[in-house]
Amino acid sequence: MAVKFFDLICKYAAASGVTLLSAALLFIAIPAQAERIKELANIQGVRDNPLIGYGLIVGLDGTGDQTMQTPFTTQSLSNMLSQLGMSVEAASKMQLKNVASVMVTATLPPFARPGQTIDITVSSMGNAKSLRGGTLLMTPLKGSDGNVYAVAQGNMIVGGAGASANGSKVQVNQLSSGRIPAGALVERAVAAPLGAGEHPGTFMLELNNTDFGTAQKAVDAINRHFGSGTAQALDARVIQVNGPIRPDAQVGFLAKIENIEVTPDQAAAKVIINARTGSVVMNQAVKVRDFAVAHGNLSITINTQNNVSQPNSFGGGRTVATSESQIELDRGSGALQVVKASASLAEIIKGLNRLGANPQDLVSILQAMKAAGALNAELEVI
């Protein structure tokens, strides 16, 4: 087999007039990168669930909410104290510095059972200066259906640091939010039955990206591994898989499916533009046709110098302050540049860089290229 392959290379080199090394490099196919179905799709029904709750943090070192500006903090504290058997007069104005109102968020993973712990994120919703050193009091976490699925409590971990004195302030990272690892205890599980719908043993795989080619390749790979008829594509995103009915066999069946490797189809040509930051990202499938563009930057520079006119000591005049401004306007080169058609991402980047445009200008150029039909890609602005 190796001899035949070498003979094929020699024949190609002789017929095309290229060197033997060049012919060999052309014949050596770079294997396409395969990915596991685990990275390409997820099992329908196996999903996270967001949780949210409102609570109080105590034990702050004078950096809590200003209760006159955040009355809900005082109200929440009064309600909590009344539940603990301590009555607080409604007319009393508590001046607290060590308490802050916070929102607590968490993600309940699939198949979580009562008694397990999950991480939580705590964020200030008032005007507390810092949550460092605080303790979150028992806070129920609810799901979208209004039921309590976990209870949170614990000591805060804040990654930021700061100090202030005499009006000066230094701060590193964020002080108004933090995390509590394993800070919530799961109290209720979310049902996530596998293959227990209308047709027992039937699972739905949902691709992360809608693509007919990738869906068909995944179906073919599953059928080669388990036999014809095991999987079928319902559309460009959902694949129906027929598996075992017994629950004890379903876990192993799904584990094997997740580890099947599939080479996804090349993604559609797309250019992503972040209009807020000016970032531009394009994939390998982007192609351009020949086009010409005139690009010039208009920059205005204003320099102002303050002058003071001091009169003679015996002149009887007065001191006058004047301002002298110099304004410069630069239109840039603005020459007409020609960019050749190319199917290589590197060549496209080189051609656009020759224009001397910054990322923000590149956004306008790409939009104009799309309108002129010179850009063979989908333009998405985020």
From TrEMBL:
GO CC, any one term: outer membrane-bounded periplasmic space
What are the subcellular locations of this protein?
Bacterial flagellum basal body
- Membrane-crossing segments per the record: none
MF terms in GO: structural molecule activity
Task: Give the UniProt keywords, A-Z.
Answer: Bacterial flagellum, Cell projection, Cilium, Flagellum, Signal
What's any GO biological process attached to this entry?
bacterial-type flagellum-dependent cell motility
Q: Signal among the record's keywords?
A: yes
Matching InterPro entries: Flag_FlgI
What Pfam family is a match, any one? Answer: FlgI
Q: Does the keyword Signal apply?
A: yes
NCBIfam families associated with the record: PRK05303.1 (NF003676)
What do we know about how this protein assembles, alone or with others? The basal body constitutes a major portion of the flagellar organelle and consists of four rings (L,P,S, and M) mounted on a central rod.
Q: Quote the function comment for this protein.
A: Assembles around the rod to form the L-ring and probably protects the motor/basal body from shearing forces during rotation.
Q: Which family does it belong to?
A: Belongs to the FlgI family.
Name of this protein: Flagellar P-ring protein
The gene it comes from is flgI
